[in-house]
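Subject: two folds for Thursday's group meeting

Dear M.,

Sorry for the delay on this. The cluster queue was jammed most of the week, so I only got both jobs back this morning. I'm pasting them in the order they finished. Each block is the input sequence followed by the predicted structure tokens. Could you check whether the formatting survives your parser before we put anything on slides? The first protein is the one we discussed after the seminar.
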Amino acid sequence: MRRLAVALLLVAAPVLAEPQALEELSLVSEHPIEGIAAGNLSGLAWCGEALWAVSDREDDRLYRLAAGDSVWQAEAEHFVAPPLSSTLLPWGLRMRTWVTGLVRGGKLDFEGLSCDAVGNRYLVSEARAAVLQIPPAGAPQWLALPDGMVRQARASGMLWHFNALLEGVAIDPAGERLWLAAERRRRGLLVLHKQGSSWRCSGSCVLMNEGGSEPSAPQLGGEMQSRDFAGLAFYKEKLFTLERQAHRICRRKPSDGAVERCWSFAAEALTDARRYPPPFGLAEALWVDEQGAWIGSDNGRHTRADGEQRPVVWRFAAPEGGWGRSR
């Protein structure tokens, strides 16, 4: 009997080890974006009646994307971020980020964009580990984040490496819960709750964190890459993470960050015509709604195989049965 059980396990092992293929999202449309001179689209959010974008090379503007037939025009809305007297990051990371900002532009390095129900826009600064709120009317202001947020994140292994810090932000419609995504080496999710005019951790700021690597999409040869988060969205009491190296979107529990289901967009993003020279042209921005997902691609000023030189926004249809489907 024991030998029979072992034999059955050996037969079943290859089946159990076989990775489950993800459902592919269907591409509805593709939109090159004119007017973002610095390129490097890094965040998307639907606010009011329009889709908005931010570039991590520009510290003083958002872009309203005016829809056209195919090519969309970016219309700049300028703002002035107030001085930030202190930052929660250690000196070494601050200085390296500051020098990089001088060289390439974007000292604040805005890496994500979100929007609440009344039209406040929220930008996460990777360089400062801070969040800027831009109201529909009035002056921008930095959110009063808790001093312990970065300390807790670093104690969990996150926010230790240059250019691998905070990469995504999501706010609930009421503007009372805020989530932040740590990019990689280790990646993770943080959550903050609004109390009066400041933000607090309810228990721990850290929802989840993980390290390690996983295979890239088969179209890229399946080479092992660091697990990462490139964007974050909140929709109908769920978090959605953009995982660029794996070319997928995952739905997660907002209470602990546990993954529930994932969908791939590799089939459309990695066609021969849409390829960039490695490692450029990765997806950086995400917004999710009932009809589908907006995904923004950061071309880093590089040219795609088909000759396209502008940042690109894709519209993918929601999966059949909707984003809440369990299987």
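Second protein, same layout:
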Amino acid sequence: MSRQRYISLILILGSLTALGPFSIDMYLPGFPAIAKDLNTTVASISMSLSSYFIGISAGQLLYGPLLDRFGRKKPLYIGLGVYILASLGCASATTLDALIWLRFIQAIGSCAATVASVAMVRDLFPVKDSPKVFALLMLVVGLSPMLAPTVGGYVTAYFGWHTVFIVLAVMGFLFLLASKFGLPDTHKPDPSISLKPKPIIRNFIMVLREPQFYTYAFTGAVAFSGLFTYVAASPMIFMDIYNVDEKVYGWIFAFLSIGMIGGSQLNSLLLKKYKSEQIIFATLVSQVVITIAFLICSWYNWLGLYGTIALIFFFLLCIGLANPNNAGLSLAPFARNAGSASALMGAAQLGMGAVASFIVGIFTAKSVIPMVMIMAVSSIIALLILTLGRRNIKNTIDISADSETVLH
């Protein structure tokens, strides 16, 4: 594969992966304006974020079998079409209930891009290269939390929050064109894969029975829920508690995303010397220490705006370090069922995100403590899952080695 082709594939797959995060982050600065227009509260508007997480989690399970059965592209096109229509619907929403439901449908569409891009990584690149490829995807994805809230803040300030969703619809259309003309058919349709409920469930169960999958997929999902907690709480934390406006909030969000991007790129360097399993364990230990320190400092009111930003930054650095390795190790045992495996991994991750964002939306009022407490608990549980789960893995597929061996 030529270098130009390699870069092109990374950009397109990264853009597809970034569609979901962009859809989450871009409308965050508009929470106060949306709440005012729909005659509700900022906390209530956060329920539209929870519904998005629920939709994208459920949609992962829908698209997994479809991608294995019909190939990667057709389900991707359908999903992006749904996304475009739902985005236009969100732009015209006049009630909170309508916005919540339309965000759910928008998520169902966008997750086709997420599942397809992850499955295509498994199709296009050797297993040993997957952590590096996922790290590069995270570099592209990392632009979304840098650009999305900043752009969203200015769009909301000058054109209104409705325009944000029109911009998202246009992005969906551009990504559809890029997928059509820039991506190869990486997986031939497999008529032997049934779409009946029993075979689908049986296929998912087969994936879940693989110790390497459930250990690293659920470790990553629980640890990653801290990110969704931060995303859901951030409008209330920064705009309500610390009283910054939507433009400043966008810049703060952009700065903090550098932590996650930096972690993913640091991971590429560390992989030259350490195994993915070692990086994940060390990162989770660090994440636990950071969140406990964050909780103690928040409890005693030792943090102001800048202290809060600093500790969130280091927390996101840990997330960026561990996530590519968790994804690579989770998918490594699968070739034929990569779509189903990536769907289950995404469903677990986003399902935990939905729960975390819902909880933080209920309890976050005028305090940072609920957000930090959820971050700390999720980090500790993730470390426990990793510690206990690794005992059941007999032969870890070493994605850092020069081997492309997979389990069937």
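Two things I noticed about the second structure. The domain at 3-182+195-392 is CATH 1.20.1250.20 (Growth Hormone; Chain: A;). The chain has one domain: 3-182+195-392.

Cheers,
T.
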